[in-house]
Amino acid sequence: MAEISGDSLPLPRLYHWERTVPQRVILTQPVGGGQLQHFTWAQVADQARRMAAWLQAQGWEPGSRIGIFSKNCAWWLLSDLAIWMAGHVSVPLYPTLAADSIRLILDHSGARACFIGKLDGWMSMRRGIPDDMPCVCLPLAPADAIARYESWDAICARQLPMQGEVQRRADELATVIYTSGTTGRPKGVMHSFGTLAWAAQAGKKQVPRFESDRVLSYLPLAHVAERVLVEQGWLATGMHIYFAESLETFATDLVRARPTLFFSVPRLWVKFQQGVLTHMPAERLDLLLRIPLVGRVVRKKILGALGLDQCRVAGGGAAPMPLALLQWYRRLGLPINEAYGMTENLAVSHCTVPGLNQEGTVGPVSEGVEARIDPVTSEIQMRSPGLMLGYYKEPELTREAFTDDGWLHTGDKAEIDAQKCWRITGRIKDQFKTAKGKYVAPAHIEDRLCMHPAIETCMVAGANLGQPLGLVSLLSTAYDTEAAQRQLVAQMRAHLDDINARLDPHEQLDCLVLLKTPWTVDNGFLTPTLKVKRIRVEEAYGPRFEEWVQAGSRIVLAE
Fold first, then answer.
1. Are 393 and 454 in contact (CB under 8 A)?
2. Which of 55, 116, 118 has its CA nearest to residue 82?
């Protein structure tokens, strides 16, 4: 591992801010009814110290695993700091998990306790928490949880704060991050305080960040991107974090924060675009943007309405960004930088350079990272000081994750252009072979499919079929009347023709299946970061593939 200075580790960063700017407001939390609660560094440190003292008083062995099960909120970060200060290891859980998945992670990690916070659907989740597990309720937790467990506020009110500056070594285990699992059972990725600190510093080099920056925290903190960009970025730079209250208030939350840095997954960038185009048709917007003075006013108005008029760096990741979408935002005056990484390398691997147009790629290799392409499989293999310690309790899987000479298998395929920018060409495991013996990489086809405004999300499948087929989950408004449905079918037929005209013959889609059933996190079709769970889609619809193809219709309507 590269040399990590002690003062760059997470806890020393907290102590630095506590000493130097104790009264600076750095967290803004909606608490309902339009009310906000603000936290200074002094308040953050005081509450973390009180909870750390309580955790230490429980007598658990050092390094005990403790869960954090909550939507994003200020107390999520305070819980993480308290766990570390008490000498333990945090285990984040996605706030959308079903009860069986919650139990699996808590059991597998050997968690001794769990913090329970903001959650939707708690009543169906609560059986995932063992009856004998000590739990602490964060503010804003569900009423039933508040009635069952002791509260954060009550503990902090009676507990004296831990004194001094507890230190954790760079090589100590800090957290076990369970992957969201697009292809199977999640694995517990182990990261140390040193890997977290290195990732935060590497991120600052990729995208310069400052104390004056503002971010909106809304993607799950259980996911590596939010954990590194927001939590570790916050500790590294002292920037101000605003939290989103709910899906319904998201637009208001974004306008309130007016973030200078904003990161999102492709699906949300598409939704922003669709929202703009519902108020102004694409043809008219394009025309206005071509007029110098008018275009400047239009850009400012649209970005202001989105809450992104102060955004100096916009980012995308977790899945490929369609090139047409990137170009649309650039015309709007908000170029999006794409980053590439994974939980196993703390999301630090490649990133497009702010200020340069490297669209269609994930940019060059990040500073401090080494990467290579396997000459046989075209797989990206990489290594850096941010690599995981391994998979928790899974030594065999850990060995399989690395090459014999210590490079991480990413499972992604890529090629490098003349400017040394890397373009992701697909997942090795996502490739499938048709009945004609031809391999199909679905990623670039899906990029084109999802650009139609009526499509919520999509997937291309077709193992052992003559040709691939496309499955799309539609927006509910796309078929709300019979006339709208007829219009939709005609539009989709034209969309399919346009896509097939750009594909090699073996890639062309036999048919497009329009599904009225939404794909959501709740029904298991999407991961918490809105990636399609291919296994779940194959299980649900695979038995009907042959039937749909043999029907002979290029556009198939299905539930």
1. no
2. 55
In single-letter form, the type of residue at position 21 comes to V
Residue in the structure block whose two tokens are 């730079």: 237
Quick check: 434 and 387 in contact, CB under 8 A? Answer: no
Residue 398 token pair: 């850990």
Q: For the segment 166-217, what is each residue's pLDDT rounded down to a tens digit?
A: 999 999 999 999 986 544 577 999 999 999 999 999 988 888 889 999 999 9
Say which residue the tokens 């749909």 belong to: 548
Name the residue type at position 129. Answer: I
CB 197 within 8 A of CB 3: no
Q: At 88, list the tokens.
A: 């333990």
Tokens 């990206």 found at? 380
**β-sheet bridge partners, residue 30:** 36
- The dihedrals phi and psi of 161, each to the nearest 5 degrees, come to -70, 145
* Helix, strand or coil, per DSSP, at residue 118: coil
pLDDT at 297 over 70: yes
Mean pLDDT value of segment 97-102? 88
Q: Which pairing describes strands 65-69 and 113-116: parallel, antiparallel, or unpaired?
A: parallel
Domains of the chain from N-terminus onward:
6-240 (3.40.50.980), 267-307+321-427 (3.40.50.12780), 432-558 (3.30.300.30)
Residues 226-275 have pLDDT tens digits of: 999 999 999 999 999 999 998 889 989 999 999 999 998 887 888 888 88
pLDDT band, very low/low/confident/very high, at 431 (cuts 50, 70, 90) = confident
User: What is the model's pTM?
Assistant: 0.84
- DSSP string for residues in 300-352: HHHHHHHT-TT-SEEEE-SSPPPHHHHHHHHHTT--EEEEE--GGGTT-SEEP
CA-to-CA distance for 445 and 326, rounded, in angstroms?
Answer: 16
User: What's the rounded Cα separation, in Å, for the pair 246 and 376?
Assistant: 46
Residue with tokens 């004194």: 163
Query: For residue 1, what pLDDT band results from cuts at 50, 70 and 90?
Result: very low
Q: What amino acid occupies position 446?
A: E
Residue 74: name the closest of 102, 32, 39 by CA.
Answer: 39
What strand order describes the sheet that includes 336-340? 261-264, 313-316, 336-340, 350-351
